[in-house]
Amino acid sequence: MTFISRRDLLMRAAAIGAVGRPFQGRHADGDRADPRDDLGDSEGVALPSREPQAREPLEHLTAEEADLLDAVVARLIPADANGPGAREAHAAHYIDRALGGALAASRPAYASGLAALDRYSRSSRGKKFTELAPIDQDSVLIDVETGAATGFAGGSAAFFALVLNHTHQGTFGDPYYGGNANFVGWDLIGYPGIRTMVTAADQQKLERNELKTNHKSAYDYESFVKSSARAGDAHEGGSPRRSSRAGAKAGA
Amino acid sequence: MATRLKDTDVVVIGLGAAGGVAALPLAQAGLDVIGLEAGAWLTRRDFAPDELRNNFRGWPQGVQKANQEIPTSRATASSPTLPRGTIHPMQNAVGGTTLHYWAQSWRLNPWDFKVVSDTTKRYGASRIPKGSTVADWPFALEELEPYYDKVEYEVGVSGQAGNVGGTIDPRGNRFEGPRKRGYPMPPLRSTEFLEKMTAAARSLGWHPFPGPAAVNSRTYQNRSGCMYHGFCNRGGCHVDAKNSTAVTTIPRAQATGRLKVVTRAHVTTIEVGGDGRVAGVNYLTDGVEYFQPARVVLLASFTYENTRLLLLSKSKAFPNGLSNNHGQVGRHYFSHHQGAPVSALFPFDLKSWYGLPAQGVAVDNWADDNFDHSGLDFIGGGNLWAMSDRRPIAAAGMNTFGRVPAWGSQWKAFVKENADRSHSSYIQKTTLPYEDNYLDLDPEVKDPLGFPVCRVTGEFKENERKIAAFTQDKMEQWYRAAGAVAIVRAPVGGAMGVSTHAYGGTRMGDNAETNVVDRYGFSHEAPNLGILGASVMGTSGAHNPTLTVQALAWRTADHLIRNWKTIRGTA
């Protein structure tokens, strides 16, 4: 039986995602790297490249929509001296994927909102949003955030709130869903990582700043992806109990 | 035409916090029980530490009947309908919302059972807020104590007792009523920050203590102790350390051979016979109709569905809905004023990435009537709760305390520094029922089967708003004493909306004119119908409802067992 773990897939995705993003190359093995190397080292963080970038295939957005969305998320959480931002986290990819699933109800809002943003940028600033300088992009986004931008069905503020919310999800959510690439979101806020057990000693280490950051997706833990339950294997250190629900069922 | 199933002694509608508990004593007493549950079994493998799935996507791994029938809400009968949510606050599954709840397992305090008489005695009858329909419970805390004790041990609750047999233990809640014995497990562990909050409360002369939780602080009943991994808030437990009924009372009831669990059973109506007694329950599974006849029906859905099912179950004997010939179904509704938090920013990391909302420090000095209200213009109060609970997406969405914009480089620098430096309080406040807060059926919005959904009409009144402002002052004082450098208060009051802490609609009381069920939880009008859940509670107190719901459920089951021949009738 060939078994490719989700962790392997994630690692591959991370490696693929890093193509054309030289500033990320050093994070491609971020799962094992000391996360403290990823942060606080502004020398290592390049500004977003203007070169065409390789990206994951689009599942729901058009290429134009995705370019525009990517440019927006890159301003919401920009790459800067404090490290990579939402573009580097692949937040737009997270949103694209989710628009066919959990966020499907928002697909029309993205089509309409991105089109409105494109129109508003051209009419108010004379250029496509993606061609504006970052400072002008920010000024457009302030209009959108405050509801001052015209031409948005349901108001521009609602669209802004939607995108910001989903950008947070795509930057700080579990990497399994396609965002938070190389754990850049979690490293930014100092999240020490997903664990299935945190002992009192671990908590004390955390309080002394000695707990090692754990770069893992929830689905790197076998307990949540294995195809059948075995007694006592769901976690480290827990007590074994009955092997399946069927064993406890009444013989009615 | 519905398929008529084999008769049974008791059918329980909903195997959550309440039904999942009641099933155990009934099955142990030798009654044949069928538990109809709209959801499915979920197990440890379903409970990944996944914030997106748990906290943003409403548990998509379970098909949620509840999400198809989310109540509508409005503040008053003349207010516009509020935007409807997309995720129901409660969960359909075996174990119900006890799978992912916070598991805070409080007893109510003695005052909560006699708000009217105690207030009248101490301050005068004029202090009962105008328009409130609040009444004393038909019994005092002492009546419920044995059932609280039973549930604490059967389900498993961690905590520190504050009053065993009248002897005050300063490590626990000195304001709790006397209990027979302490908790079966010591409290969940503390953290450096919680210790800081504890010391700060003491410096103010208050009496902080660790709160009670239906979470194992050590191995209990062969299940693991808590792993403190940080995904307990709307997350199920990957080691079964959270004592949902799905891993405690329900499997034990099944082991007797007397409980049959029927999953994915979508109950549509309770059937009434020509004699005005309930005859059984109609339900659908995959579009196929079944009729489950039973001697006794226990309605144990959530507050909204309890009211809705009664109102939808019309018959010759009950033309306005089952057990509603006095027009009381849906009345005395209220939800806890648990919003209006205070947020604080500290100049140091709190190290609260790992923990759970039930792990924390409580202050009850400003709850209930634990302080003198003579010079105040409200009754009741709030429980202050500082917990250890943080996850990455929520942390990034932190309050920025007016210091930076909501996005961009400044924001990014702010969250980089402060993501682990903010704290938000949880303050549960006394909330009273009022004449014009109620549940009924929405005249327009329907579920996919064409049945109207429940409609909430409710707003927090002056008494609740005053408590909120008062407790926010106390919370700010507490945070400042612990070193907070910035404070933001959320607005108080407003519309009740749809809540996880929803009470009333089938209130318990001796008077059939003003209550739906009697002191044991059985209908005043249909004697073989029992109702379980916070829908029977007439006051909220300042603490989470679940343990009280479970103690009441056990008590109703106990009453049924003792009076089986009378209640089941002769049919």
- Number of separate strands of chain A: 0
Determine the N-to-C terminus distance of chain B: 23 Å
- List low-pLDDT spans of chain A: 1-50, 230-252
CATH architecture of the domain at 1-101 and 244-335 and 501-571 in chain B: 3-Layer(bba) Sandwich
How is the main sheet of chain A built?
Answer: none
Topology diagram in text:
The complex is a heterodimer of chains A (252) and B (571).
Chain A: H1 6-17, H2 63-76, H3 91-98, H4 107-125, H5 134-146, H6 156-172, H7 184-189, H8 200-207
Chain B: E1 3-4, E2 8-13, H1 19-28, E3 33-36, H2 51-56, E4 72-74, H3 115-123, H4 141-156, E5 163-164, E6 167-168, H5 192-203, E7 209-210, H6 249-255, E8 259-262, E9 266-272, E10 278-285, E11 288-299, H7 303-312, E12 334-335, E13 342-345, E14 360-363, E15 382-387, H8 392-396, H9 408-418, E16 422-424, E17 426-429, E18 438-446, E19 452-457, H10 462-481, E20 486-489, E21 502-503, E22 529-531, H11 546-562, H12 564-568
Parallel strand pairs in B: 1-11, 2-3, 2-11, 3-8, 4-19, 11-22
Antiparallel strand pairs in B: 5-6, 7-14, 9-10, 10-11, 12-21, 13-16, 13-20, 14-15, 15-17, 18-19
Helix pairs in contact in B: 1-6, 1-11, 4-11
Describe the protein:
The complex is a heterodimer of chains A (252) and B (571). Chain A is built from eight helices and no strands. Chain A is mainly α. The radius of gyration of chain A is 21 Å and the shape is elongated. Chain B contains twelve helices and 22 strands. In chain B, strands 1, 2, 3, 8, 9, 10, 11 and 22 form an eight-stranded mixed β-sheet that branches. Chain B has a four-stranded antiparallel β-sheet with strand order 7-14-15-17, covered by helices on one side. In chain B, strands 4-19-18 form a three-stranded mixed β-sheet. The relative contact order of chain B is 0.19.
Distinctive features:
heterodimer; A: 252 residues; mainly alpha; 8 helices; disordered C terminus; B: 571 residues; alpha/beta; FAD/NAD(P)-binding domain; 4-stranded antiparallel sheet
